[in-house]
User: What shape does this take?
Amino acid sequence: MTDLEHHIRQTPLADTHEHISSAAEVADKSPDVLQTLFGGTYITADLVVAGADPQAVERLVDSSDHDVRGRFNAISDAWQHCQHTGYGEGLRLAAKLVYGMEEISAEAVETARARDAELWQPRARLRLLREMANIEYVQIDDATWPCKADPEAPEFFLSDISWVSFVNGQIDAEAIHAEVGVDVYDLESLREAMTGIFAKHAPCAIGVKSPHAYTRTLRWKDRSDADVEGVLQRQLAGHELTDDDRLCLGDWCWARGIELATQHNLPFKHHTGYCAGHSEMVLERTRPAHLCPLLVKYPQAQFVLMHCGYPYGGELLALAKHFPNVFIDLCWAWSIDPFNLCDFVRRWIHTAPVNKLFAFGGDACWAAQSVGYAAQCRRWLTRALQAEVDERLLSEKQAMELATLVMRENQRDVFDLEGTRAALHASMKEAS
Ligand SMILES: [Zn+2]
Assistant: This one.
């Protein structure tokens, strides 16, 4: 093992994006080995794209069906066709590290079932993430406003305020009232409600997150109150909004979210590029360059652009080079297209300041999956930096210093780890 490889293995990873279930959800859902390894929208999408019957894929991840051999055999041809994709590699690494599986087969999953119950135990997530994957902490998007302290490890499981419904132009007056006690009847009261949501949840939040590139364009326009008031009234009256109206209201809410995040010193994370799942992506609207007007308008905000904007990595690199307020998060992207990421990291080193790059987020729903994705990130980051050393573009010492920056130090400069942890501990004391 080279010193570089050893260093990357030993350095704890800051994990800036996950959807990992809480301990209570894990205990409740009790996922079996097939759901744990295949569950979610990544490898299941590759399987369908490879030709698997969508119903067989649904059955594959249904733990209530105890015929694990039958569930696997129904998709095994498709698995053969996508085992070498980035998703497949992440899965194989998780299977090996968590279950000791050398290959994915009906026999192997049958044997691995014996370990299922172990993973439903309290603190199993921590053992996987902190000990096995050498992750320092995780940032979780659970698609809600509250950022509650995790009872098992409040310093480890941090979370984001989700702003996606607002950016999609969906104003749920009932939910808002229940959350902050504000009746929304016009833009002024909507503004007050948003201020209330941040006042209540920002201290315990590590960031703000919106994956609206799945549902609308990233193109943003500055909208005046006068343009938006009528649209809001139509929505509150229960009328179906046109697409243009939804963008109008969504752009306004997005801007207020950026302003509030900036006031509360929270980075705002945006999904950019490729969409998980299959058969529905509108790729063009996910282009990072659509964000330029927003980046210009809010120079004091901190924009975290996620997933390497795949396949628009060149655009993302240009944005990160040009805008001091842009940071790039490679979460999930190692498993979309690992060679692309290797190349992206190398181009980055010679193009944009390296303090603005974050290496990892598993973007997974089960902790075991993140074990695989963390190993995958380390494997390909090592490969990228080793190539720099081999071609004498960096010394090994410089490569190790860069690894430390992108794996954990850069994240510390942008996210207020200690402040958030202190607020979470204080909130737990208050609650007890
Ligand atoms: Zn995600």
